[in-house]
From TrEMBL:
Protein name: Uroporphyrinogen decarboxylase
Keyword Signal: yes
PROSITE patterns in UniProt: UROD_1, UROD_2
Subunit structure: Homodimer.
Alphabetical list of HAMAP family matching this protein: URO_D (MF_00218)
Catalysed reaction, written as an equation: uroporphyrinogen I + 4 H(+) = coproporphyrinogen I + 4 CO2; uroporphyrinogen III + 4 H(+) = coproporphyrinogen III + 4 CO2
Single annotated GO MF: uroporphyrinogen decarboxylase activity
UniProt keyword Nucleotidyltransferase, yes or no: no
Protein EC: 4.1.1.37
Length: 357
């Protein structure tokens, strides 16, 4: 693995410190999907360029990444991209339809699976690395930069369903009827995700998050069989491959709706466990107390609709319930497109108003 370039030194290292279990003056806060849709300046950029044009042009991806940081006192940036760049790099067509989301017009089938272009897939994602490098210089060390990837099961779901789905029943049919093909696909994705995360780290990502957004469609049995081993393998291999460099890049796992495997999240090899908004911060805080992981979350994205005073109260309540030890404050899922920009500021500033002892 090539060493990171001599980027400007990190000034605000709150988030990285907390991810590693170190003390800070204040709690770090950032917001999943902070760079996109709800920002008027992003909508304006989208009128000029397509979604993937923005992703694939480092200057534009950098511009979108920095947008929320100009407005809010966030403790991290996240590179502008999408989890579906991997299926795209594997040769699948991905369209971003406004108001709908990602659509893959030719979904994966058992028959066409052999058409996936595994060779060279990661090199086709070089533009994400370039966007990260550009953004690292533009950030001037203000805050750390997140890289990210979809998790194997979540990507499998989009590839087979051809987009989002209410049930993921086509993808789950693979798990029940075609276990061998499922494992073959999950193996391919695990390999590509690992190399893709390493590419992002090599190009300047200071922390990386794996989004298993579709965990909620599975149960404990399926998650044990088709998710946990792959998530473990990704963390193990990424850590192993960066061990000999000076880079100590924390890993974050966010498995939306994986309440049935919450305890298992601690031992997968990730430094931070994302907690979705359906979970009770007090119970989760107690469950993970004295375990060697940092928690991240978990305000309901819809809490941003509440009146200002109410929003502040809910934020404080959540933090008190989690406990301030090893906590990265975030929403419990990505921010919604109709979120109020002022509410985001209220949320972020409320977190920073707390002085830790
Ligand atoms: C981290 C990230 C993602 N997408 C985007 C980012 C980075 C920039 C940012 O901060 O917004 C841009 C990102 N991705 C998208 C947009 C809007 C598209 C546009 O501008 O036209 C933006 C800004 C499109 C997109 N892409 C996706 C959806 C969801 C569709 C569904 O309902 O299943 C949607 C709507 C897939 C996707 N994409 C992502 C996830 C994981 C997080 C989560 O669970 O919310 C998922 C599931 C992750």
């Amino acid at each position: 693995l090539i060493m990171q370039q001599p980027f400007p030194p990190l000034k605000n290292d709150r988030l990285i410190r907390v991810a590693k279990g170190l003390k800070t003056d204040k709690l770090p806060v950032w917001i999943m999907r902070q760079a996109g849709r709800y920002l008027p300046e992003f909508q304006e950029l989208r009128r000029e360029y397509s979604f993937f044009e923005i992703c694939q042009t480092p200057k534009l991806a950098c511009e979108a990444t920095l947008m929320p940081l100009k407005r809010f006192n966030l403790d991290a940036a996240i590179i502008f991209s999408d989890i579906l760049v991997i299926p795209q790099a594997l040769g699948m067509t991905v369209e971003m339809q406004p108001g709908v989301g990602p659509v893959l017009p030719k979904p994966l089938t058992i028959e066409n699976m052999k058409m996936l272009q595994v060779q060279g897939a990661v090199s086709r994602l070089q533009y994400v690395g370039d966007a990260i490098t550009t953004t690292r210089y533009a950030l001037k060390g203000e805050v750390p930069l997140f890289g990210f990837s979809g998790a194997p099961w979540t990507l499998m779901g989009y590839m087979i369903e051809g987009g989002g789905s209410k049930t993921m029943s086509k993808a789950k049919k693979w798990l029940y009827c075609h276990p061998e093909a499922s494992k073959q696909l999950l193996d391919i994705l695990t390999e590509v995700i690992t190399e893709f995360l390493l590419l992002q780290i090599e190009h300047g990502a200071q922390i990386v998050q794996v989004f298993d957004s579709s965990a909620e469609y599975l149960n404990r049995q399926l998650y044990f069989k088709y998710c946990l081993p792959y998530l473990r393998k990704i963390a193990y291999n990424v850590k192993r491959r960066i061990r000999d460099t000076k880079m100590d890049v924390p890993l974050v796992i966010f498995a939306k709706g994986a309440h049935f495997c919450l305890e298992e999240m601690e031992s997968l090899g990730y430094d931070v466990v994302g907690i979705d908004w359906t979970l009770d911060p007090e119970k989760v805080g107690n469950l993970f107390r004295d375990k060697n992981v940092t928690l991240q979350g978990n305000l309901d994205p819809c809490a941003l609709y509440a009146p200002k005073e109410e929003l502040i109260k809910m934020t404080m309540q959540m933090i008190k319930q989690f406990g301030t030890d090893r906590l990265i404050v975030n929403l419990g899922h990505g921010i919604y497109p109709d979120a109020d920009v002022e509410a985001v500021k209220t949320f972020v500033d409320a977190v920073h108003a707390i002085e830790l002892k």
